[in-house]
Amino acid sequence: MTAAAVAVPWCIAFSQVKAQIPTAPGVEPDSTALAMDLSTRSRWMHGRQQARFTPFNSESTPLFVDSIRTDGDRRRFFLSIGRTTSGPDSAVVTLDLARRAFEVRIGLAKVPAPPWDVYPGYVVGVELGRRRQRGVAQERVWDLLPSLPSETPRVGLVWRETIEHVCNDGPFRHSLRGTRVSRIVRDTVVGGDRMWVVKDSAAVRYEEAYLVHERSVDTTVLESRTGAGTVRGVHVLDNDLHLFRWREDTTRLQGEAVLQYPGGRSFRTPARYEATRRWTLYDARAFQAYVAERRAASMRQSGGMVIVPSNPLDQRLAARDTVARDSLIREWRRASDPDSAQRIFSSLRTFSSRDRQSQAALVRMRIDAGDTVFLYGELSNRAFMTQIDSGDARTMLQFMADPSIPWGFNQSRDALYENLLQGLITMPPAAGGRTDRLACTPVVCRLLADQWRTAREPRLRDVGLVALFTSDPRQWGDTVLALDVKQHPLLASSKMLARGVGASWPAASKAPLPPPGSDAPVWLEWMNGVDPKFKPTGVPSAPPRATPDVRFEWSHIVAIRMYSARTGRDVVSELQQSYRAATSDAARLIFGTMLQGLGGLQLTEADMAAAFTSRVPERVALARGALYTNLGDSAAHMPDAKAAVLVDRLVAAVVNSTPLWSDLMPGPRSSPRGLLPGLHGGSGQILFDTENVPETVRAKWAGQVAFISKSEWEQRNTREGGVLYTVDPVRVWGRFARVYVRLSERISRAANAVPEAYAAGTTYYLMELNGEWVVVSRDAWIT
What percent of the chain lies above the pLDDT cut of 70? Predict the structure, then answer.
């Protein structure tokens, strides 16, 4: 964003540039002849944002100088300025030494657009983002070359130049204009060569404008920012190479941000920009060493999927040490640097997660301190799959009623609308289910529903209609169906739900609920049919399936319940009749799976045993669905004497690779080790949690396995490798049993590295057959 001290009045975009590094015959060129690493710490703040609550964005971006070619007074720099899966983004900079001016040509790799929309406008959004990237790349290249003096460098030399950088691509605009004054303050020696230390200061005016796809209105909006201010920096000038070896600069701009909608609506807010940048030039070998060190440092700071305390203070927080917590809260209140404050708060919130009261107090503390951006993020998260209260709803309505408010805080206008509607559609009141999981209470639903009649913002009126529809689909379903989704994109999910669509994911055919009397293949297509136009990129083509897989999820249950509520149709009774009339196992599986999810089919223990022993895949699949319900956490505990046999078999498999129970229907992972929970490192001491391991089992394995408590595991050095196995109480239902084992895995790490931890688990569903236990189903997960 800061200026290079040369003038260029235009930018050129053309097809991808490919530069070669001159080398001796038969010698492979270096991947990078030179690399300029740019580290940036920056932030745009809109008028309502507070500096103490707005962290900086930090990034490191390399520009690769593949080759430099000289032609008289002209020098051409061939650059790679970015990497994509389709190849590098490239540029050529032509420097005219006599005129002290340069010309930039950018060539972006042709990245194919996604062939399908994850949500309305996704493809458009990707394409707009790629066009914006052209201007961002242009800005980086503008700053690659230093200000060049018009005469031989010497200490005390001062020169001035005009900055005139402009890049226009229709509505996408980037420009930087102003005047820079540079002064050589001293000389220095780098690698035996004399170079010059230059200080500079520039008064500049910056503009950027670009189109953004706003999903909640399914249209593109124009976002623009202008600002005037100063750029101050210091660099080491290599007058022979015509590059700076090192540079640091700071930018401060004050101006305005404008959001413009099609049709004339616009919103303005003051804006300010702050940035600190550091440029460092490396040769190929030095850059490779720099990257290797950064990678090693990153690996030291990268743990596993499970977050564990990495220092004594975090350990004290995790142990609910109130002295440590209160001390950190005081530091957070005093912190003037927003990045430090954010790190402190993240640590507090991460390691206070076991205490809901402390979590709630932290959230209140930050909101009470005046961090409205944090409040907006919290509300957006609560709106999604969380029951909100009337206070939250009223605050949400303030943000949603006036787009200028989120714009004034530099926040997405889409998130709150989308998350709130997702919650309403996923857990609609009219579909029943647990009342504590419904998206809104009756009071909140009425508050939202009132917006259909009173709101001025069109999107908020649509929120009101969805609240009405999800509460009373019989009365409001036709209103939803009558509205055009092009004009009301927020109603897209409601319209599908009103039509009885249960499979709404991008690849689905999105078939409406089948009419009464439909046969099994029609219902199977409704459950999991694939849109023939769906062709995901980056995935090897697979032969088309002859028939879809049976797939029945919560979205299908909601679709049937809402359709029944809207139309009065008794879909469950229809499915029960079709199940009784089915003449094949495949048809019974399709109808039976849906009935199980809807609570309309109960299999007896004898039915399930017969299904498993038949080994008919369709009958086994249906029996498994019933098994998961009957062996839930409400099932009885198996007596210790009988459970000890199963737990002992599990310990033997972990310690000695003793074969586990045989699989009734063997598959590709039915080997003894394949049936065990997954591991990432596979090394370190084996430990078992003493809880739920019978005394007889502990006594048998005491010499080979360490049995410890959960608290002892938590107090153990988190950088010491080991795997803790925890067995849940064995559940029993008739001749069936459930054994669930979880593991916590820690990888051995150096003292200066953060801990690396993972988790996994496997549930074994067993059936007693001819005096032996066999696996009839198994579920597994791994982080």
Answer: 92
